Amino acid sequence: MTPVRAFGAGLVCAALACAAGAPERGLTIVHTNDLHARLLPDAKGRGGFAEVAATIREACGDADACLVMDGGDMVQGSPVSSLFEGVPVYEIANRLGIDVATLGNHEFDYGFGKIAQFTDAAEFPIINANMHHPDGGQLADAPSVVLTTENGIRVGVVGAVTAKLPYLVTPGLLGEWVAKPVIESVAGLVAELDRKADVVIVLGHLENDEEQALLAVPGVDFVISGHDHSGLDEPVADEDTAVLRIRAFGHEVGRLELTVDIDSDTVTAWSWESREVKDVDEPDAATLERVRAWEEKVSEHVDIDLATVGRDYRRAEVKSLFERALMEETGADFAYINPGAVRASFYAGKLRVRDVWNAMPFEDYIATGTIQGADLPEFIVEEYGLDPEREYRFATIDFVVAQWNQRGLGSIEVEHGELFRDLLVRWIGEQERLD
Question: What is the DSSP letter of 143?
């Protein structure tokens, strides 16, 4: 039996009450977020697109009606995505049975122009209501959709991405597109959908404060979100609305069960659980076929042994290891990379090039320079115990420098070097063993 974490308000839906001709009808919504192109299960047997597909199918089970939604960051996190810039991930995701998805911040990692290729590849609508361009136009398929289930429930869905997007994407990749504040962008659409749908959902890739603010927007029944990889142990709910979010990398799927009165357009009962995706007995065959086809295209580049790892390294330890590599290879006095740059742990055993790509999927280049301690961001000085009066030779990645400059933390001149991932592969290979 699939392990679950469950929470709810006591779902009751007797067979007669949920019959197609009765006002109260049943609906199951299965949701994912932050899949990050993890096409294969990890070293602990968690995730994998074929395994996620099988878990979704099981979660829909014998539901009266079932919809599948994704909360963004479908791409960026594995060699297939990095080498082919995300498009194959959407082609594979078509096998998951997704009915609607929204954009996450990492959908912009290959530039805003790539999103048109994502929408072309996806056989499901990708929606967003708050990306705006001075010349008008639409970045996704639509701001919102209304999905009508086979038993007659109308579900209105509005898409949104965090307004903090500029601080999560390398400058220049957004072009002239601007992420407008979430509440002002979705409130009008929610009101419109509330008049013609039985259930209204904001499908977002959001910061926690934006999720919380949506609880107060009239007409929102549920916020199905992504972006915070830790997920929720139970919904964040008030009397009218609940926020739902599951853990990242395909380790879980969420399952929301509803009873909906279509005469009064109200949710009369609901329950929610998260289902772990781990050691799935029968991965979905069609999805597995596509995963293997794409993995064959990258295998010769990444399925190469690099070193032996003597113990498990948590992500914070991998960050320290990467900074050590950066410092040693550049001769810097200190090295810094942002915590969000590290996307995977290392586990005891053989470490392959693939594992380095999973941990550092981004096309970040080395940036080095000389700077007075006092001119560095204050949190760096404090975290690394630096002397404000001393001059340092430092090493980082170009994304960090761009964000420092964009946030007004100081204009820092640097010299750009090789792809950071190439440095890591070389350095780790030279170590032969990590203990």
Answer: S
Smallest CA-to-CA distance from 212 within 194, 193, 225 is with 225
**Is 304-434 the same fold as 4-292?**
no
- Provide the CA 60 distance to its chain's centre, in angstroms: 22
Band of residue 377 on the pLDDT scale cut at 50, 70, 90:
confident
pLDDT at 406: 80
Extents of the domains making up the chain: 4-292, 304-434
The whole model's pTM is what?
0.93
- What is the rounded distance in angstroms from the CA atom of residue 430 to the CA atom of residue 88? 33
Under the phi-then-psi rule, with left for phi > 0, alpha for psi from -120 to 50, and beta for the rest, what region is 97?
left
Number of C-beta neighbours around residue 228 at 10 A: 17
Q: Is 116 exposed, middle or buried (0-12, 13-18, 19+ CB in 10 A)?
A: exposed
User: Which CATH code of 3.30.43.10, 3.90.740.10, 3.60.21.10, 3.40.50.720 fits the domain covering 4-292?
Assistant: 3.60.21.10
State the chain's mean pLDDT as an integer.
93
**How many whole angstroms separate alpha carbon 416 and alpha carbon 418?**
7
Q: Where are the beta strands (DSSP E) in 195-302?
A: 199-205, 222-226, 236-237, 242-244, 252-261, 266-276
| Assigned superfamily of 304-434 | 5'-Nucleotidase, C-terminal domain (3.90.780.10)
β-strand partners of 432: none
